[in-house]
Design goal:
heterotrimer, A alpha/beta (293), B alpha/beta (292), C alpha/beta (486), B: 292 residues, 3-stranded antiparallel beta sheet, globular, C: 486 residues, 7-stranded mixed beta sheet, 6-stranded mixed beta sheet
Chain lengths: 293, 292, 486
Amino acid sequence: MKTRPVDRVATDARAASFQTRSLKKEAKLAGLRTVISMIDLTTLEGQDSEEKVRSICQKAIQPDVHLADIPSVAAVCVYPRLVGVAKSALKGSSVKVASVVTAFPSGQASLQTRLVDVQEAVDAGADEVDMVIQRGTWLAGRRQEVADEITAVRNACGAAHLKVILETGELGSYDAVRAASDLAIQAGADFIKTSTGKVASAASLGVTLVMLESIRDHFLKTGKKVGMKPAGGISSAKLALHYLVMVKETLGDDWLDANLFRFGASSLLNDVLLQIKKQQSGAYTAHYDVSEA
Amino acid sequence: MSQRLKVLKTWKLYLNGEFPRTESGRSQLIKDRSGKPMAQVCLASRKDLRNGVSAARKASLDWEKRTPFNRGQIIYRLAEMLEGKTNEFVELLAATVPGGERRARKEVGAACDRLVHYAGWADKFIQVLGNANPVAGPFYNFTIPEATGVVGVVAPEEEPLLGLISLIAPPLCAGNTLVAIGSSQHPLATSLFGEVCATSDVPAGVVNLLTANRDELIPVLASYRDVNAIHAAGCNLDQKTTLENGAAENLKRVKVRSLTGKEWYDSALCHSPYWIESFLEMKTIWHPSSAG
Amino acid sequence: MNPTLKFKDAWGYSPAPETFAVDIQAQYGLFIGGEFREGVEGKLIPSLNPATEEKLFDFTEAGSADVDGAVKAARKALPGWRRLSGMERGKYLFRIARRLQERAREFAVLETMDGGKPIKEARDIDIPEAAKHFFYYAGWADKLDFAFPGRTAKEVGVCGQIIPWNFPLLMAAWKIAPALACGNTVVLKPAETTPLTALRLAQVFQEVDLPPGVVNIVTGAGATGQALATHPGIDKLAFTGSSAVGKWLAEALAGSGKRHTLELGGKSPHIIFEDADLDQAVEGIIQGIYFNQGQVCCAGSRLFVQESVLAEVSKKLQLRLETLRIGDPLDKNTDVGAINSKQQLNTIQGYIKTGKAEGRQYHQGGTGKLPKKGFWCKPGWFEGVQASDTIAREEIFGPVLAVMSFRTAEEALKRANNTPYGLAAGIWSDKGARIFEMARRLKAGVIWCNTYNRFDASSPFGGYKESGFGREGGLQGLRAYLEEIS
């Protein structure tokens, strides 16, 4: 597969240019609501228990008690063990259940173990699964093996939609991010995702742009639309809006939709709610004006 | 109406962008020219020096990556802040250095101008000291000067402010980070300069300042393996030999200047890209050139 | 199957006007000998906002007597200025740079209102780069003896400087900063349609106590420029503008003994190889021809795309044009502003007509409702252009791109160099050796590799051949302002 070269300096400059867009008033409000509808509200801690998950599910359905016209988030994202709990808690709502799989976050387990992990999440009722690619295999140059593993997971997913996490912070260059994106899409990804959020280097505007360009080329060539999810490091509403600007001006209107774009985030939701409150009341907010999940 | 009791100032070290006391607990009483006690300064130890070098090494990656324009801006800001604190510096210098206020004011003005001069070199020295090389082959070849890394400074006893700044500014503008031992006899200028650095957008760890017994720390600095170069002045033959001897430990680049008195004010002597060059490494890069 | 992306209004950006309040006087005088004064003949010229066609202010047309007065003031100020140490001269320039930084937002709004460029560009490029130019040359003032080995630096004297309307404040900085750093004094003539930021800059000179007469500003039109260029009292002329006027000036100065530097027009080639990062190459194309509405001397106005990727690049270019926002220059989301004047708009439209008449298909783009008044030209490109087309040979100075193709590097080089101009060139390729070799063989003074339209105070800028001679910026930029080094 021919890899596309990516010029990092130029790409970062283009990504930075989206931050000069100024979003005011109606545009800002509309954007903030769209951001909420795209959030995969995430809890992936060793400490996660049933009650913790129930709490986050309630927040997902009804992010704020007082504000009207606030959509639910797109999904709740948990470890496979807690998928069942989430499924019950979210019953009757529009919020999907996403599960991380394949020995998340490191992916350092046998293929067999990783596929069992997928199966358990799907059996427990996950609507969406987020897998990690095997970075060690990638960095050793065995690209086809990585592709085959993605395809194997795709087959194990059944009806659930598959997000492929590239862990861009570990791949080493934008060229590698582009090559991994192309490969994941060819191998059957419904979504490509930047990061696990568990390593220092998570999503950035530059890396996201590279992945959006991969999706764009695939669409222009085949007509097929693949989704994109940046995860980790997006905790401010302002930054989330800049991501939306980048999506709008790179892929166009169709991708401004939770079926094709998600934010993997936890504290982002509250910052967006606080921004909406400020926008509507005119007063700067206090940190306790929103509930902690 | 009774006189207001003054709040006395505690002088500390300036390390990693903060003002810690010396870990040794030692201090030095400074008396003014009439013998009256005026201040207590920290007497830094080898461990403080170690902390300074450690901070300088950590800060060096970021400082070197900044644009030359940004470094120049920060050094110009040092000049702005120093100029703004002129009266305070004059008071401290005149209290201990012979020559009174008039001499002190001259020293502060010269120190400001020195910072302005080297701020202006930050985005130019490469144009004067680097170059393309016309090798005999289908290659582009260029020599680019780079910062050597962490530079240890030993400031002179006389001209305590001007000497300190003259030794710090040239390596600083090129992307080196600094650990400086100030004058032992007139340490307050060093301490106050720490405040200037702290208010000038200098990133933490880029400049680290110690007030100390010079003779105690010179041998430690000399043989410190994580220091790349030394910039010193006001050293006698023994001190110079100690520095060069210790530097052999890891082949530090050593520059000991022998300027005295009025020479510090002579821009023909002190304003030069060659003061920077001692703290640069020349890197030569080859790349083939072919359209096919 | 021909899938295409939709860039419509799924999420419209609300208006985001720059609201910083600025103070524009009803009338401006000439800045001579450190103060503003009326013109001897009292003639005024109106200045319009090209986005609204409203009059913003009147300014004075300097007649020959005024130009004479300005040159005399510069001559009078020269001994005192050159006697200052380099350090002291430098400190004045540092003050000016700092003041520009502090008043950056004000200058950006004035520049946009007077000239039509988007506030985003004035704010992010024009004004910061102008400040940086003063910072850079401030630092050279006391270092001149290191600039040219074996030579002692000496100023030229009184410098006449004529600047264009496309980057008014930035061009003023490019001219004034090095001249002053080297110990010269200046008489500057801003362009007829954009004197405002130069006049505000004069107020900055007063604010920083620059000695009177060191910089003088004579506003006016062609006649004022001519009077300045041919005035016997100037020692040197620096001109940035069209090649036609540049050649006229060179003739006028022949035999006069006056030194001169000319920064003129261009028809710069922008070359894209098949192995380039094509998505960013398209960004480069946009930067190259639509930045400042294409009113840039070094615009990448001749695009050469390797044939194997021509279809892909063309498609991506057209899609990208759909996200370029054209409209009110004071809106922070505007990418393409107004054309500087009715005259320039007519020139551009004339070329578009010619291109179509010569049989080329024209594609336009840009999104946004154009205001009823104002001088607007949507960004566009001609497909299948051939080397002998008028639009491939002549400088249009507008947002109009000529797209051509090539097969091999040799062919690209031959076609790229086949022009009387030689200002800039762009090369996009992922292969280092190719980049270096193409750069070596392209006859242009500025070569951008995997980027375009990047400027820096420390980077020399100027052209080969009929794009002029002399360099501005960097160490080489000092030469023109120092006594002939021979």
